[in-house]
């Protein structure tokens, strides 16, 4: 039996979720839990082992150790199925065994922890990295896939790790596609149109991986502006039929395709497609969220004049969906409040939802979001300029860098030039803001 110090030293040296400095907030963990569940567990998904591994880590961080162990065990089974190797074991299990070593250590089961450490050593000796100074490509790929689920700075690392894995093992198509998808995610997070080089990379990836409809939809979305309308419509409808035939998943491409339909086909056809998908799979949580989001897009878009029946349908969908994401429904509840503002008979419900959120126990970033959205609600729907300023100030003074903070600061800068009574106060407030 090795000493406690020696054991902890070996654990710290492992490559696994417990050592990758993920450290998400509890609200982020809850969102990630639902996102991973919504990917689905369809057989044949080449990322199924990675999904179970990350789900296991998330459940551990949320305090569900039994669930974590079950999911880590499912990850090992999934890797055996998806890799179709001669042996049940391979380098793809290094991260999984590392996770199990850490889990047993945290549970006080040191003998089991040491057993998994020995398994990791055996695998690394049997399957050394092709490059002496780098990790095994299987480890790089799993680390990359994991990091791409987090913030932009971690996505940049993910892109680099995918590239390293691909250079050492260029025959893994799913790694190549995911590398392009993480580059796409980084590019679009800046709200800029993709450059020609990125579009060409997506085109090549689409040709190499024609079954990946998620990639195909995003490629169509990026090219639609420069294509003939009839061709966009034809391609969108063809993709819709393929997606409807496939298993439901958050990576099916449905959500992005509905956005393409709204922008380039028609709102009516978008609604028909969404409702048809939900009719086929009425109990699938992710599809319900897609349809609810579609109605929200339509109802809250500028220049939209939705009828009451559409508003009622949107409200009903949101009320059905929110309990399905109980630990991660903040934005969905705000969306519901904003839909109520459009209703002929439930506008007071919007204020009630916001007041409930303001009184709830929220993390710092969540408070900032609620203050910003409530401030916008007061300004646009209640014509309450003073109240709006108050809540934009509350959002801005929270030293957490986000879109919502920047939005509140922009509002305050703009209004101080038109609202002379509070110009000096706002000027001083903005000058003294603490940087995140």
Automatic annotation (TrEMBL):
GO CC annotations on file: cytosol
UniProt KW keywords: Immunity, Innate immunity, Repeat, TPR repeat
Residues in coiled coil: none
GO biological process: defense response to virus; innate immune response
Family to which the UniProt record says this protein belongs: Belongs to the IFIT family.
Protein's recorded name: Interferon-induced protein with tetratricopeptide repeats 1-like
